[in-house]
Protein: Histidine phosphatase family protein
Organism: Telmatocola sphagniphila
Amino acid sequence: MRTILYLLRHAATANNLAHPALLQGRRQNPPLHSVGEMQARVTAEFLAVRPLDAVYSSPMLRALQTAQILAAPHKIKPVAVQSLIECDIGDWEGQSWEEIKENEPGLYDRFMANPAVQGYKGGENFQQVLDRTRGAIEEIITRHAGKAVLVVSHHIVNRVYLADLLGLGAAKARKFSLDNCSISLVVNEKGKTGVQVLNSNFHLQGVA
C-alpha cells in the first residue's frame, strides 16, 4: 500500500518577499501577498489533475489561504491542525537575520550552531517543533493509507520533519531551504516513510 503526502510550504507574504526577508513565526499572522496568491493559483493548477483524498493546514492565515486555493479544484475543505502551526520564534519575530546577528551575536551564534538545542529568543527550538509536529503528520499518513493527501505548513515545520526523515535530525534542518509554495513529496510504502522529492518548484517558473 502506497500513501503519498504532498508537503507544501505556504505561499509568500510581504515578510517573505522583503529584502532582507523578515522572520515570521506565529505572533504575527499576515495574509498572502498578491505574489503569494499567484503562486498558490499556479500550484493549484499543477495539483488539480492529481487525486487528493484530503487537505490539511496549519491554522495560520497564510497557510489556510494557500490550502483553500489548492483545495478548491478538488472541492475539498481544508482541515486546520493546531500541531502544524509555525515555530514560535519569540522576540525575533519581524526582524532580519542581519539585525539579529548585529544586536545579539552570542545568541545568534549559539542558535546557528545547534537550533535543536538553542531556540529562538523567547521561543521554541527545532527539536520542540519536531516533537509536536511529527506525530500529527504521521497520524495523517495513517488515516489516509493508500491515498494521496496535501499538507500545507511552514518553513521550519516542514524542514525539521523532512530533515528527520532524511536522517539529518532537527539540528541539521537549516542545511536546506524550502521555497514558498514548493512541493516536497513524502511516500509511505511497506511501513517505511521516505522523502522522494525535496523542494520542487518547477511549477512556479515565471512566478516571482
The chain has a mean pLDDT of 97.
